[in-house]
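To the team - adenosine-5'-diphosphate complex, inputs and output below.
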Amino acid sequence: MGIRIGCIADDFTGATDLANNLVRAGMRVVQLIDVPATGADLAMDADAVVIALKSRTVPAADAVEASLRALAWLRSAGAEQIYFKYCSTFDSTPAGNIGPVTEALMDALGTDFTIATPAFPDNERTVFKGHLFVGDVLLSASGMRHHPLTPMTDPDLVSVLGAQTVRAVGLIDHTVVAGGAEAIRARIDALREEGIGIAIADAVSNDDLVRLGAAVQGLPLVTAGSGLAIGLPANWGVVPSRAAAQLPPPGGHMAVVSGSVSVATNRQVQEFLRSGRPAFSVDPLRIAAGEDVAGQALAFAESNLADGPILIYSTEAPDTIRTVQGRLGAAEAGELVERTLARVAQGLVERGVRRLVVAGGETSGAVVQALGITGLRIGPQIDPGVPWCAAALPDGDTLHITLKSGNFGGPDFFTASFPLLDEEAS
Ligand SMILES: Nc1ncnc2c1ncn2[C@@H]1O[C@H](COP(=O)(O)OP(=O)(O)O)[C@@H](O)[C@H]1O
Ligand SMILES: O=C(O)[C@@H](O)C(=O)COP(=O)(O)O
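Output:
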């Protein structure tokens, strides 16, 4: 039997976010890092497979190429429905990549219609009348308006997506969604007749997502943030079960590596420092000056791991980041930090860390690749959108790891996540 849902996620933390929601709805999920070279046997035991790409901010043609490779792999593994996962804040530019990837997947699947909804009410992302809200404010008034690569200044998703697609974009508004699966399906039929190819779907609650999930049963392709995933497993008769999230027992030293500069991560770093636990700050200017900052961080780790969790972080407030970027260039600073934190993560694992929190999407990508991890089993949720995972290291040992999206997680995430892992295993 093949897999039910084949997912293509446009970044690594987003992929675990999606996998987490599928697991919570009862599916057994495997997350693969990039498209595997080998055959479909990796997915043998899973109801869903999530392929994590790093395609959110690359040129649109590259994102399309990677997504089509992922699609080919998922189809060869027997996927019955394809789920394209993007950010709950719809991170993209007028050049893409959400529109071009969606249309390329539609063409490859030979389908004339799909839906689009980044709604994730558990993390306060809601869509009403096609407009995206983050907490109590429109997307355009949220921190996303200042994003360095994908500034989001228009909250009207019909217009945002329409600027990225050849196909016409329409709306399934909340009145219809509240009416249930039949009403939604009738609206989809009407939109199809009008020649609409993609419809933004409103959702302000998990109940809306469950109704949408039932309505899109049988569509070859759905596109969404992670929220829609809570409404899909029921289409295959799958029900929530604790067994879906079981991981092997944890052990080894505990560490946090944070390269995220998001608001929520800044709060989490501050909270960790306030708790008086061991922490080491990675300064990009010292790396640029040729100092062996990774070596210093690892020496610090060696003296403090016994009192862990320890924190190695480059997280700073926006003003400091701007100053560093002004001196080094944004891309260069990012790359220096990512390379250093990836080396630190490798060194931590060599020194016996087996429980690792990584904060930030780009940072997670760099760390996971440096550790040679090719797949993740998804375990229990720590906070909405963030699960513990288990990965096989190249030497066969198990590493418990969580990849935290910058804007997710409560203030005590860097300490509270570790006891939760022990509790779940007992
Ligand atoms: N102190 C710093 N100065 C400049 N750039 C930094 C600093 N710390 C982290 N960065 C870079 O900022 C980017 C953060 O992206 P990411 O890891 O996706 O997290 P987030 O999106 O939550 O901020 C990475 O490229 C990282 O290397
Ligand atoms: O959908 C979401 O918000 C997340 O899953 C996600 O993709 C976050 O991206 P980063 O903030 O870049 O980690």
